[in-house]
Design goal:
Blueprint (H helix, E strand, L loop, with lengths): L2 E7 L4 E6 L4 E8 L5 E8 L5 H7 L2 H4 L1 H10 L12 E3 L2 E2 L11 E4 L7 H10 L1
Parallel strand pairs: 3-7
Antiparallel strand pairs: 1-2, 1-4, 3-4, 5-6, 5-7
Length: 125
């Protein structure tokens, strides 16, 4: 008997896929932009890497920029770059990070401006 994975998109619609029962639940979150946010609950086996989970979720096929970045970063073991695009609970992690039960995988988008600078400009204006 399979578990159901439900993806909620920013417009409130639901997409569900039946996946075979696995050992642990992880969550994925990606705010593609202000209007499009993606959330997914995924069952994966123990020993699954962050990169493998992105693939199982279908996000490497769905989001070309993420897939391209992952191909470039797959062998990097220390996420030091300012433009690092993935993490677990707001902590940047390498793609080979082994997931733990109930981890929240977060995909970060590039920001057009530094949020601190934006706040300073708003307070001055």
């Amino acid at each position: 008997m399979g578990d159901t994975v439900v993806e909620l998109t920013g417009d409130g619609s639901k997409h569900s896929n039946a996946l075979q029962s696995e050992l642990m639940t992880v969550y994925l979150a990606y705010a593609e932009d202000e209007q499009r946010q993606h959330y997914l609950v995924l069952k994966v086996s123990q020993g699954t890497s962050l990169y493998e989970a992105l693939g199982k979720a279908g996000w490497l096929e769905r989001f070309a920029e993420l897939a391209k970045w992952c191909e470039q970063a797959v062998d990097i073991t220390t996420p030091t770059a300012k433009r690092w695009h993935v993490g677990i609970y707001a902590q940047k992690q390498p793609l080979n990070y082994l997931l733990q039960p109930f981890d929240r995988i977060e995909v970060y988008r590039s920001l057009s401006a530094d949020p601190m600078s934006q706040r300073k400009n708003k307070s001055r204006g």
